[in-house]
Amino acid sequence: MSHGPYHYLECISCRSQFKPTQIYSCPKCGDLLQIGYRYEALRPRFKRLLGKPGPHSVWRYRELLPVSARNAVTLGEGGTPLPRSTHLASDLGLREVYFKNEGQNPTGSFKDRGMTVAVTRAVEIGAKEVLCASTGNTSASMAAYAARAGLKATVLIPRGKIARGKLLQAVVHGARIRSVSGNFDKALAKARTLAASDELYLVNSLNPYRIEGQKTMAFEVWEQLGNVPDVAILPVGNAGNISAIWKGFWELNRLRMTDRTPRMVGVQAMGAAPIATAYTKRENEIIPWPHPETAASAIRIGAPASWKKALRAVRDSGGSMLTVSDQEILRAQRLLATREGIFAEPASSAAVAGLIKASRWKLIKGRESVVCVVTGHGLKDQESVGG
After folding, report:
1. Is the pTM of this model over 0.90?
2. Which helix (H) or strand (E) holds 153?
3. Is 73 domain-assigned?
4. Tens of pLDDT along 43-74?
5. What CATH number corresponds to the domain at position 293?
6. Confidence band of 161 (pLDDT split at 50, 70, 90)
7. CA 42 – CA 68 distance, rounded (Å)
8. Are residues 263 and 364 in the same domain?
9. Structural domain of 15
C-alpha cells in the first residue's frame, strides 16, 4: 500500500520535514533527505506481514516502503543467498562469516533493490524519463527497470571510466548514453542540473526512495540469520548502500524487532578514500578527491554524495572505516572465487579485503557473526581479472 500520512521526507541535518514531492535536497539547508515513518503506527502491520510465510524479496517488506506495491515495477529483485563461509572464515580464525551475494539480483548487483522502488516512484508521480550518472551498475539497473516500466532512460557516464560489461547492459536495455568529460563526480553534478527539470526523475542514491529499496538487505539478513549479525562489512563508493543498510538495521531496532544493531564497517579503495580519511582524522567533513583512482571502478568516487550518512552510520554503530589497496582487492577477488566459489567484481572484493584486514587488526572477535556484502557479479567487470 501507499502509506500517505505514514511517511514523509526529512532533512538529515536540520530535521525539517516535508510532504513527499520530487525534491532531492532540503529546500531550507540544502542537505540530503531521507524517508521517515510513523513507526509506532506501522509496527503492527510490519510485524503481521513478516509473520506470513513467503519468499524473500524487496516487496516482502512493502509495509515499510514509501510506494505502492500494487504497481511495483519489479524484475524479482531481492531474496539473494547468504552462504556461510566454508574456508575463508577458518583461514582468518573466525567462526561465523556469511556472504550476502547481491550479484544474484536480476541485473547482477545490489542496485536492483533500490531501483525497483525508485522507478516505481517515478511511475507514481507520472515521470516519463529517468536519469542517472553512473560508473556502471546504476546505469545497468536503471535501464532494465525503465524498460520494464516503459520509461525513457538517460545515462551520464564518465568518459573511459566504466566497465564495458555494465555499459553493454545499459545499451542493450535501450538507454540513451551520454559521455561526460571528467570522473563520476562531474557526471553526477551534470545529472543534478538536468534533474532540476520536473520532466526528468533522478535515480542516483541521493534520491531517498532508492535508499529505501536498498535497506531491505538488512531486513533480509535479519530474517535469514534469525537475528542481526555482530558486524556488517561492505564497500563504500558514493556511500548510499552503507547508509541504506544501516537505516534498515536501525529501523528493526526502532520497531523493537531486535534489541541491538551491528557494527558497520565500510571499506574504501586507497585511491578513492575521502570518507575513510575523514574518519581516521576524526573530522566531521570530507575533503573531495579531485582525481580518484582504483581498479574497483564502481567505488572510484572522490566526492561521495552520501558521505555524511556514511560517517554517521559508522560512528553511530560503533564501527569503522578501512582502506585497502588495489593489490589487496584483486587478491581478495581471487580468494573469494577459489576458496568460496563466488565470483565478485573488484568493488565487492574490497569488502572481502576489508574483512581480511579487520580480522588481522582484531577489529572482529573470533566468535562474532559477520556478514560481508558482495555487491556485484564478477562478470560485470571482466577486465580486472588477471590484474
Report:
1. yes
2. strand 152-158
3. no
4. 999 999 888 888 899 999 999 999 999 999 99
5. 3.40.50.1100
6. low
7. 15
8. yes
9. 4-61
Q: Cell numbers 536501525 label which residue? A: 250
Whose CA is closest to 275, among 296, 250, 292? 292
Please indicate, yes or no, whether residues 233 and 311 belong to a single structural domain of this protein.
Answer: yes
216 in the same domain as 147: no
Q: Which of 232, 216, 225, 222 is nearest to 319 (CA)?
A: 232
Which phi and psi angles does 260 have, rounded to 5°?
-150, 170
pLDDT band, very low/low/confident/very high, at 251 (cuts 50, 70, 90): very high
- According to DSSP, the β-strands at 231-235 and 369-374 are parallel
First to last CA, the chain: 48
At residue 183, what are phi and psi to the nearest 5 degrees?
-95, -170
Same domain for 189 and 255?
no
pLDDT of residue 5: 64
Interatomic CA distance for residues 42 and 47, integer angstroms: 9
Residues 227 and 354 in one domain: yes
SS3 48: helix
| DSSP 8-state symbol, 196 | T
Residue with cell 538495521: 249
Rounded to whole angstroms, the Cα distance separating 81 from 230 reads 19
Beta bridge partners of 201: 130
User: Are 55 and 143 contained in the same domain?
Assistant: no
- Angle of helix 307-317 relative to helix 240-254, nearest 10 degrees? 50
Return the closest-CA partner of residue 207 out of 334, 22, 1: 22
- Length of the chain (residues): 387
Closest CA to 372 of 102, 154, 7: 102
CB within 8 A of 51, min separation 6: which ones?
none
CA distance 272 to 205: 18
> Bridge-partner residues for 37, per DSSP?
7
Three-state secondary-structure class, residue 326: helix
